Amino acid sequence: MADLGKSSTGLQPNVAALLAYLVGFVSGLVFFLIEKESKFVKFHAMQSVCLSGGLFVLGLVLRFIPILNLLMILLDLLGLALWIVCMVKAYQGEWFKLPVVGELAAQQVGGI
User: Fold this and answer.
1) How far apart are CA 27 and CA 30, in angstroms?
2) For the chain, how many structural domains are there in total?
3) Would 4 be classed as within a structural domain?
4) What is the Cβ-side half-sphere exposure of residue 14, based on CA atoms within 13 angstroms?
């Protein structure tokens, strides 16, 4: 694992980054707002916000289009898989960037 620097949360940066995914949008936003030092933690926190927010909005759209309602099962499984992968990668200290939401998160923290 690369040197991730120091986190202002009092936790190891990889643990703080993992916890940013734990409750999706809520924990991501909390860690994004309280982290002052670690770009690694802020990146994963913002990626958590973007991922969970994006899946939530997509889920709302699919719920209101009856023919696409069946896609909700696939969306839920995809969301679960991405959530687990992101938590594991964060804990391993990787700057794992998802397509689209990862780029948005990187822009919010000043690039990675």
Assistant:
1) 5
2) 1
3) no
4) 13
Judge whether 70 lies within some domain: yes
Q: Which three-class secondary structure string do you get for the chain?
A: CCCCCCCCCCCCHHHHHHHHHHCCHHHHHHHHHHCCCCHHHHHHHHHHHHHHHHHHHHHHHHHCCHHHCCHHHHHHHHHHHHHHHHHHHHHCCCCCCCCCHHHHHHHHCCCC
Q: Per the domain annotation, does 2 fall within a domain?
A: no
Q: Provide the whole-model pTM.
A: 0.91
Between 70 and 85, the higher pLDDT residue: 85
* Whether pLDDT at 72 is above 90: no
* pLDDT recorded at residue 77: 94
For the cut 90, the answer to whether the pLDDT of residue 71 exceeds it is no
Q: Which domain holds residue 19?
A: 13-107
Answer yes or no: are the C-beta atoms of 101 and 88 closer than 8 Å: no
Kindly tell me if the per-residue pLDDT of 38 is higher than 90: yes
- The tokens 């099962």 sit on which residue? 73
